[in-house]
Amino acid sequence: MASLSLSCAVASSSPSSSSSSSSSSSASPSMLRAPALSLSSSKPSVFSSRSFPGFHRRASYPRIYALSSNDIKVGTSLVVDGAPWRVIEFLHVKPGKGAAFVRTKMRNYITGNTVEKTFRAGSSIDEANVSKETKQFTYKDGAQFVFMDLTTYEEICLNESEVGDKTKWLKEGLDCNVLFWNGKVIDFELPITVKLKVVDVDPGLKGDTAQGGSKPATLDTGAVVNVPLFVNTGDEILVDTRTGQYMSRA
């Protein structure tokens, strides 16, 4: 918020001009100046976004968009029976007889349930306005996983049932995408790749190579993944969170 300052121009008088000014019964209109408003200030605003850590700019009402079933693709968010769903598989079918249709496999954002549903080709469907915001996983408080917006410092808590098996890839300081629908948190997405540290693994044998097989390794989040025989305790590795598979050493 810029501060408002009032500046007024005051006519100065000198002793030599006192006689001429006293002889004038009224001031000239040009000498009367209205106060000028200045919207600029050299001082920083005292009402920055950090002054309101609980304030978060988010629509307070849902926005619904019409979508044709012909536009369905993997990742499309739909509203079906009043709930948000994400399309994970789809197939446009044009049978020899009958109308064309779109066969989909969808996952419920809230419950995690997966169902198969068919839509008539060209039919109108409500698109779910699912928004994403980057939050950092900061710490775990009992059964609560705390995520923070590093701009507003607003904290969002998810319980263990909401986090699910993603907890094995969560590490403090990890940036995730939190998903909102109708102003509520419905899910969060992990980065595709995470860097984790091996805390327990059988030592490799002399002469082991990258093609020489694999062994289970326990990571600092508690997750267990199969790693090549040459990986040792203390090594940092990259893991694909979608498949849980070892990618490479970091």
What would you note in describing this structure?
With 250 residues, this protein is mostly beta strands. The protein is 4% helix and 44% strand. The protein contains two helices and 18 strands. The strands form four sheets. Strands 3-8-4-5-6-7 form a six-stranded antiparallel beta sheet, with no helix packed on it. A hairpin with a 2-residue loop joins β12 (174-181) and β13 (184-189). The chain is flat and about 60 Å long. The two termini are 46 Å apart.
Strand arrangement within the widest β-sheet reads 3-8-4-5-6-7
The fraction of residues in strands falls at 35-45%
User: Major sheet: size, sense and barrel closure?
Assistant: 6 strands, antiparallel
Average residue pLDDT: 78
CA-to-CA gap between the ends? 46 Å
Contiguous helical run count? 2
Helix content: under 10%
Shape: flat
Low-pLDDT segments: 1-62
Task: Briefly note the structural class of the backbone.
Answer: mainly beta
> What is the total tally of β strands?
18
Q: Which oligomerization state do the chains in this entry correspond to?
A: single chain
SSE order, as H and E? EHEEEEEEEEEEHEEEEEEE
Radius of gyration: 32 Å
Describe the protein's topology:
Layout: E1 5-7, H1 18-23, E2 36-38, E3 65-68, E4 77-80, E5 83-93, E6 101-108, E7 114-120, E8 124-127, E9 131-141, E10 144-148, E11 155-159, H2 160-163, E12 174-181, E13 184-189, E14 193-201, E15 214-219, E16 224-228, E17 236-240, E18 245-249
